[in-house]
UniProtKB/TrEMBL annotation:
Organism: Triticum urartu (Red wild einkorn)
Cofactor(s) essential for the protein: a metal cation; thiamine diphosphate
Subunit comment: Homotetramer.
Gene Ontology terms: cellular component: cytosol
PANTHER family with a match to the protein in the record: PYRUVATE DECARBOXYLASE, PYRUVATE DECARBOXYLASE 2
Name of the protein: pyruvate decarboxylase
Length: 51
């Protein structure tokens, strides 16, 4: 899409874990660690574009 000159918008949604599974059977495996969202931008751009 970038090669065609189109503008891309990325939506990141953080659900904080498996809510339904916590209600059924609670455990540490239901907690998902949060991502470092600012590092994601650094990972997908090539150093020449604007983010």
């Amino acid at each position: 899409m970038l090669w065609c000159g189109q503008i891309n918008i990325i939506f990141l949604v953080n659900n904080g874990g498996y809510t339904i599974e916590v209600e059924i059977h609670d455990g540490p495996y239901n907690v998902i660690k949060n991502w470092n969202y600012t590092a994601l931008v650094e990972a997908i751009h090539n150093g020449e574009g604007k983010c």
